[in-house]
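subagent[fold] <- orchestrator: predict structure for attached chain, return tokens only, no commentary.
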Amino acid sequence: MSMLRYKIFSESKTISHEKPVIVMLHGLGGGYANWYSQIHALKPHYDLLLIELPSHGRSPFKMSEMEISYEHLCGKIMDIVDHLGIQKATFAGVSFGTMLAKYIILHYPDRVDKYILAGPIGNFNFILRGAINVVRRLLPIAPLEFVLKLVTL
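subagent[fold] -> orchestrator:
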């Protein structure tokens, strides 16, 4: 699989390496559009890297077609960070994005300047693992919106 979909919001239209960077990770059922209300306020002061997770937004990648693990997803996130030459960043996550941010904080501590966890959820437990297994099995045959409504009832 190639790189995850991402978008940079910056006054210079690229990672300037002159401003601090915030890597923004959305939650389940979202996309990087979830962060649009924060972009306007943050963009003058930070370079923003918004990453779209598989099976979300307009990502061309499907969770049902890839390995789903913290290690794999966070490795793909860090591939983008490396590709853009970002040495250290603030990692911001909302909901499921907080789980990914926490993994990065623990496994890549030298790359983390600060972190923001909004609406954090805990570690994988058997209920969450079961919900993710249901999602993985239904995604190839049902629209994402239907699957998310089903597992959030």
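orchestrator: received. Logging for downstream: The two ends are 32 Å apart (CA to CA). Residues 70-83 form the longest helix (14 residues).
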